[in-house]
Design a protein that fits this description.
5-stranded mixed sheet, Nucleotidyltransferase, domain 5, alpha/beta, elongated, 3 domains
Length: 266
Amino acid sequence: MEVLYRVCCGLDVHKKTVVACLRFPGPKGKRAEEVRTFGTTTRELLQLADWLAAAGCTHVAMESTGVYWRPVYQMLEGSYELLLVNAQHVKMVPGRKTDIKDCQWIAQLLEHGLLRSSFVPPAPLRDLRDLTRYRRQLIQEHTREVNRVQKVFETANIKLGDVASDVLGASGRAMLRAIIAGERDAGRLAALAQGLLRRKDAQLREALLGRITDHHVFMLQSLLSHLEFLEQQIALFDARIEEQTRPFETALDQLDSITGVARRSA
């Protein structure tokens, strides 16, 4: 089988170790290999990079193992042609498996051009992915906390959700803070309604007549504090993402003009 890469390396990446198999031309036209094990600290990864450079390595392949591949990839990025491959694509025949056999197998597949690299975006886009994915988690957690507030209201027999479409809108928050502060009179709570919700005064009075205990107040206070914290974090991430996407403003505007594609999706 034809050898495509004169000097290449296969890496088996773990949390604490990286086992590297370097494939290179040997005597009498045969292929030779050298296997070394490195740690995953920055100093050890620099030694790995120096070893590859000294050998004249041009291509490096590794499996996408959790997040452990990322420091290795970032250390070697820009100096070598890197291939990040799906573990299922390089799965060995079932049997006895070792780290050394794994890296040797990856190196052999690489030198014959039998590996297909996964898409790895440039570093700025990887950072943007981290930001948007974590912001999504923050938003999902915020939604869960809103649902928990609704559950506490239900256990206290407060039926605000039956009258107000948004339990934690401006009116709902004003009522929630008043309840936490000790207000129990349904009429005074209903008077805190704003906007169109004021028209539902009678319904609000009925809905806000509940059985609120100290336990409910404690839970509501904790949930409200966490919600406000999450909202602060979401705002910070929004600002950071806005800064990171400023170079792509024109492209974002074009995507946002497509029906069904909102700014956040773009």
